[in-house]
Amino acid sequence: MLQGWVVVLVSFTYLGLLFAIAYFGDRRADQGRSIIANPYIYALSLAVYATAWTFYGSVGRAASDGIGFLPIYLGPTLVIILWWMILRKIVRISKTNRITSLADFIASRYGKSAALAGLVTVILVLGIVPYISLQLKAVSTSFTILLQYPEVAMPAQRAPETMLQDTAFYVALTLAAFTIAFGTRHLDASERHEGLVAAIAFESVVKLLAFLAVGLFVTFGMYHGFGDLFSRGFDEPAVAPLLSPLEGPAGGYASWVWLTILSMLAVMFLPRQFQVAVIENVDEKHLRTAVWLFPLYMLAINIFVLPIAVGGLMRFPDAAVDGDTFVLTLPMAEKQQALALFAFIGGLSAATGMVIVETIALSTMVCNDLVMPALLRMKRFRLAEHENLSHLLLSIRRYAIVIIILLGYGYFRLAGEAYALVSIGLISFAAVAQFAPAILGGIYWKGATRAGALSGLSAGFVVWAYTLLLPAFARSGWLPEPFLTEGPFGITLLKPLELFGLTGLDQITHAMIWSMLANVGIYVGVSLRGHQSVIEQTQASLFVDIFKQTSELASPWRGTASVGELQGLVARFLGPARAADAFRQYARDRGLKSAEDLNADPGLVRFAEIQLAGAIGASSARVVVSSVVQEEPLGIAEVMNILDEASQVIAYSRQLESKSRELEAATAELRAANERLKELDRMKNDFISTVSHELRTPLTSIRAFSEILHANPGLDREQRSRFLSIIIKESERLTRLIAQVLDLAKIESGQVEWHNSELGMQEVIEDALTATSQLFKEKAVRVATRIEPGVPRINADRDRLMQVMINLLSNAVKFSDKEQGLVQVTLRTLGDTLRVDVHDNGIGISPENHEVIFEKFRQVGDTMTDRPQGTGLGLPICRQIINHYGGALWVESRLGEGATFSFTLPLERASARVSKVAS
Amino acid sequence: MGKHDVNHQHLIALFVLGLVLFNYPLLSLFNVPGTVLGIPVLYLYVFAAWGAVIGLLAWIIE
Question: Which of A258, A305, A871, A886 fits a disulfide with A509 by CB distance 3.0 to 4.6 angstroms?
């Protein structure tokens, strides 16, 4: 009889045996004679893929869907063909960078991002918890069933009211204790567990043998081989549909294809698969054998799935027994005590293998990627004081293991009953598949960015949760039922199982299509639009080009620390003995006698970082090492700073250049201004001396003639009269000169009052001609006027314009031909201006003197021979006046052809002034 | 790299072959009623193809 204590005793004996194997494995590893360093153990450890889900669940699925259980194993077989390329690359990358987990791998690839590591860990914990709960469910159900022996009865569908009566609770606690004993006995720098791998390989053998034993018993014990079994099956109405051609294998080809893809990804990226295939890999050459041995194992464990399912359905025709339990219940029904117990142990080994490896992998991630980064940030100073942190690390992991398994138990109690084994497992598969774009993209595509991975992963995760996790909750009664049937808030388009109206697919296919679309799309899109930081680029080429690199890595560390500090740091996390060993080994590898001879060069810093990465993960290790390395690592921030500084320097030098250009310009302006000032000063001096000279000339003659008159009272009357007239003339000249000097000074300084009024230019010209008519008569110069009719009136100072006209006319008279003097005066409008020309037929003015004559006191002609015929101020004054009204005054002339003095006055401006005055 | 270099092209070709073997439409050819040696055709085909792929893989890589 199989009493409870027998089952428990056998179970614990089995677990004890596992522990012994693990212990032996670790012992041998320490002695350097590894028992797992061969491809067969490696291949068997990969078979941790086959869990209680395979052991019990495959038969269950086959009993309901026929061939539908196979994609879960065909997918891995297909992808394994490519493992020599893909997985070998991942293994190489992980060994080179001391990657310790899936989260570590992804975070390292994308610039050692702590955020990414945390996200991956959270997704994994949420995604894997249902899977763990599945194992607990399998063990507790099988245990309960076995206790009924020889009766075959299904356990109650509802879990017992209290946890203390619940078998699954004790199973969970036992597994937690066992996992802690296995996985956290000591902290290893490489996070490898040789003993564990040995035990897992042993478990794989046990579960295969147990399943084959049951299969052989059913096929050849209960029936007479496959032919007999199947031909009887065809006669059974409940069985025949499974064997007949299907409408499409198990829910259509779409479902088949997606299950294949899903399992392809799961076999690489489930935490336990990553752990055994990558982290625990001893030698990448082992892949060579494992890639065909592992599929062979899967083939073997699946051969009898259908026969057992068919046999079960025939043995229990009334569907009273759950297909998930046929492996156990068939031997029980046939009164095969030992075989039933062996089947139970097989299921137990499948479940424990999965739970142990999975929780160890998860606890490592929770510790390294969630808890440690948080601790390092929050209590960094307190942590730094700790002498030995390895105990802390181990405690964190132990708590993590207990919590994860209890979470699995919680899920089992609350939700587990709503689903068959296979469905729960597929939810986890779909969660894990979300990592595929980030990992596969990460090792083949250098352009993939951290932001892309982060957002793609988040998007995929959200869609996964919405289309798989929430419906699971809804079915468990945690969410209202209408959430599924009518969509959230009654929005049919958002129904979690028919998102955006996509119907006709099973739940997993539907979820995979949407989540992968979101994941890959956003991952690629964001990566293409964004740009990588320096550390991302370094890591990207480190990962993608792993096979091109030599063993020596490009060290991203700058600066140095002391050897003692580094060793102390490593000792804190690994323990002093291990740290000393590691450093001694490092020294020996470099041909040095002891660790004291080491130089704390970047290589050693890198070595220390790698050691720490093994214990606490890459992102945490980086933070820790940077705390002792005196110079900050060549991190993103620093490189950005350097770049910033450089660009600032460039910016500054540009600014300096432009400043100095401005200064040069300003200097030039100042120099020019200075020149002008000097010029003006010189002109002022010239002016004064000229004025003094001009004043002195008439004064001299006045004085000379006055003295003559004074000294010679007896001069005759005629002579005296002549002298007096000279004195009067010179005095007039003097008065005129002084008046003009004052006039010019006033105009130039803007002190003149302009008495503007409306006037006609032709009147001014006529008045001026009248005023100068005496002059014309004296010189016998004829005058001809040509005045255009209808010239607009302007607004100006009449006296000033008279002054200009008189000046120009008297000049014209002076310089016109001595014999046939003719002055022509023309007035006309020219566009917006009126124009006055005064032409004489005199000797003309050479072109070089055209401007000179408008300068003060500059009279053309030889001043030595000719007496000056004017003051030299008339034209400058005229020009000032015309300029004041916005016009221009100039001369056109050629020697011998006379000269034309012309000025213009703007009409508009004049009229504007009129309107201004009028208003 | 061990005994001999693994030919990556052969592996990729085998992978594609596997995809074809275990997918529509090839799969549907064997999705017919009847048995061979007393075993339903589809199951026999899948397992035979599976075994063949594993055999080929072992032959390529070892």
Answer: A258
Tens-digit pLDDT profile for residues A679-720: 888 877 877 887 787 778 788 888 888 888 888 888 888 888
The closest of A420, A465, A435, A472 to A69, measured between CA atoms, is: A420
Q: Provide the pLDDT for residue A863.
A: 42
CB atoms within 10 A of CB A145: 22
Residue A757 has φ and ψ, to the nearest 5°, of -155, 165
The pLDDT of residue A568 is above 90: no
Q: Which of A248, A253, A299 sits opposite B51 (nearest CB)?
A: A299
Question: What is the number of CB-based contacts under 8 A between chain A and chain B?
Answer: 101
Which among A244, A288, A303 has CB closest to B33?
A244
- Residues from chain A that touch B23, judged by Cβ atoms under 8 A, are 253, 256-257, 260
Contact A260 B22 (CB under 8 A): yes
Number of C-beta neighbours around residue B55 at 10 A? 12
Q: In sequence order, which residues have a C-beta less than 8 Å from that of residue A841 and are 6 or more positions away? A: A816, A817, A820, A821, A822, A823, A898
- Among the residue ranges A342-356, A489-503, A637-651, A829-843, the one predicted with the least confidence is A637-651
**What ipTM was reported for this prediction?**
0.92
Longest dimension (CA), chain A: 181
Of the candidates B18, B27, B38, the beta carbon closest to that of A226 is on B38
Specify the pLDDT at position A459.
93
Interface contact flag, B38 A257, Cβ < 8 Å: no
Residue among A784, A724, A813, A796 at smallest CA distance from A760: A796
The answer to whether the bond into A150 is cis (omega within 30° of 0) is yes
Q: What is the pLDDT of residue A561?
A: 64
To test the contact with chain A by mutation, choose from B23, B57, B60 the residue with the greatest count of A C-beta atoms within 10 A, namely: B57
What's the CA gap between B61 and A815, in Å, rounded?
118
Q: Angle at CA A78, nearest 5°, toward A77 and A82?
A: 110
Average pLDDT, chain A: 80
> pLDDT tens digits for A520-555?
999 999 988 887 777 777 778 778 877 775 444 444
- The label of the residue with tokens 């014309």 reads A776
A96 or A511, which is more confident: A511
**Residue-level pLDDT at A168:** 77
Mean pLDDT on A408-429: 72
C-beta of residue A443 within 8 angstroms of C-beta of residue A547: no
CA distance A528 to chain B (A): 28
Which residue in A310, A354, A264, A280 sits closest to A82, CA to CA?
A: A264
**Would you call A84 and B50 a contact, using CB atoms and an 8 Å cutoff?**
no
**Residue A839, SS3?**
strand
How many CB atoms within 10 Å of residue A482? 12
Distance CA(A174)–CA(A272), nearest Å, equals 19
The closest CB to that of B42, out of A67, A253, A291, belongs to: A67
Using CB atoms within 10 Å of the CB of residue A332, give its burial: 0 to 12 exposed, 13 to 18 middle, 19+ buried: buried
Q: Does the distance separating the beta carbons of A256 and B24 come in below 8 Å?
A: yes
Nearest CA distance, A245 vs chain B (angstrom): 5
Q: Is the pLDDT of residue A3 over 80?
A: no
Which of A:301-360 have CB within 8 Å of B? 303, 306
Residues 251-280 of A with CB under 8 A from B: 253, 256-257, 260
The pLDDT of residue A278 is: 87
pLDDT of residue A205: 92
Low-confidence winner among A101-115, A464-478, A535-549, A626-640 (lowest mean pLDDT): A626-640
- Best residue of A81, A263, A292, A294 to probe chain B, by most B CBs closer than 10 Å: A81
Task: State how far the Cα of A567 lies from the Cα of B26, in Å rounded to an integer.
Answer: 62
- What residues form DSSP beta bridges with A759? A794
pTM of the model: 0.63
